[in-house]
Write a structure and sequence with these properties.
The protein has 278 residues and is of the alpha/beta class. It contains ten helices and five strands, in the order βαβαβαβαβαααααα. Helix 4 links the parallel strand 4 and strand 5 (132-134). Helix 1 (11-25) packs across helix 7 (175-193) and helix 7 (175-193) packs antiparallel against helix 9 (215-243). The chain is globular and about 40 Å long. The termini are far apart. Mean pLDDT is 74; it is low at 42-59 and 237-278.
Length: 278
């Protein structure tokens, strides 16, 4: 499968890297190929490449990048293409993608991504299907209101910090990053299984996990179960402990003081604020 991430900033590369890292945990080979200028930093030296991530190289032409993607796909690897928004109109690109994702991390780039998705979704009956929007938590509230009108992936990523980027580049992402990547990859699997879906939700994921149809559906369900198990393992004891309700401390017992005949005890402040408390 070839997944295309379209962005005019580094958000497409970060999202593709997260998804590829999630695949590495379930032992599925993945290749990330980025258009020149769409991957931060220099290529990793030979022998120091992180799992499931290869150096993006310096492909000068879009066709060269597509040829490398075809070669990686023929070798049994999942492929993540990171491309500029302008490539969304390239028929030769869209024809090779199983899923097209448009994204932008900053408010400015998120607005550009929204316009690109709206433009690609405008022609009725166009094939291939419209792209999906991948939102980030830094998007403007106005952008969030528009997300409901477009095909939006039910995942919202947080902008990575410097430590996150360094760990991801070194192939040692933290569990929190891997959990985000695993959720993203599971949603991408579901989107690829139903290209014409207008939305993805828990019900759609549940149906994909329990197929009763073709061998392709069963293969998708198996891949989703692998990701679900990986996500559960990433939770660890710490996450389960964090979700467990805390026990309230036992109430203090006050030593009864001397009673004054004819005097009622004063009401506490919350009770005193209620009508008829006095």
């Amino acid at each position: 499968m070839v997944y295309g991430f379209f962005a005019d900033d580094a958000s497409g590369y970060h999202a593709a890297s997260l998804a590829a890292a999630a695949l590495a945990r379930v032992e599925r080979p993945a290749t990330v190929l980025a258009y020149p200028g769409h991957a931060p930093g220099p290529a990793a030296p030979a022998g120091r490449r992180p799992p499931a991530l290869v150096a993006h190289g310096a492909a000068a032409q879009l066709q060269g990048l597509l040829d490398r993607a075809a070669a990686a796909l023929a070798g049994g690897s999942e492929v993540f293409l990171v491309l500029p928004l302008a490539a969304l109109d390239e028929d030769r690109v869209r024809a090779r993608l199983g899923v097209a994702v448009v994204t932008g991390m900053s408010p400015l780039h998120a607005a550009r991504a929204l316009r690109a998705v709206a433009h690609a979704a405008a022609p009725a009956g166009r094939r291939p299907p419209p792209p999906w929007l991948l939102p980030w938590s830094a998007a403007l509230s106005g952008c969030r209101r528009l997300e409901g009108r477009l095909r939006t992936l039910p995942v919202r990523l947080a902008p990575p910090g410097r430590a996150d980027l360094a760990a991801l580049a070194a192939g040692t992402p933290a569990a929190s990053l891997l959990r985000s990547g695993t959720l993203l990859m599971a949603v991408l699997e579901a989107a690829a299984a139903d290209p014409d879906a207008q939305r993805l939700d828990a019900a759609a994921l549940g149906e994909a996990l329990s197929p009763a149809g073709s061998p392709a559906d069963q293969a998708t369900a198996e891949r989703l179960r692998d990701l679900a198990e990986s996500f559960a393992r990433l939770g660890g004891d710490g996450s389960r402990a964090a979700r467990a309700p805390r026990r309230a401390p036992p109430p203090r017992r006050r030593r009864p003081g001397p009673r004054v005949p004819g005097r009622r005890p004063a009401a506490c402040q919350p009770c005193a604020a209620m009508p008829g408390a006095r």
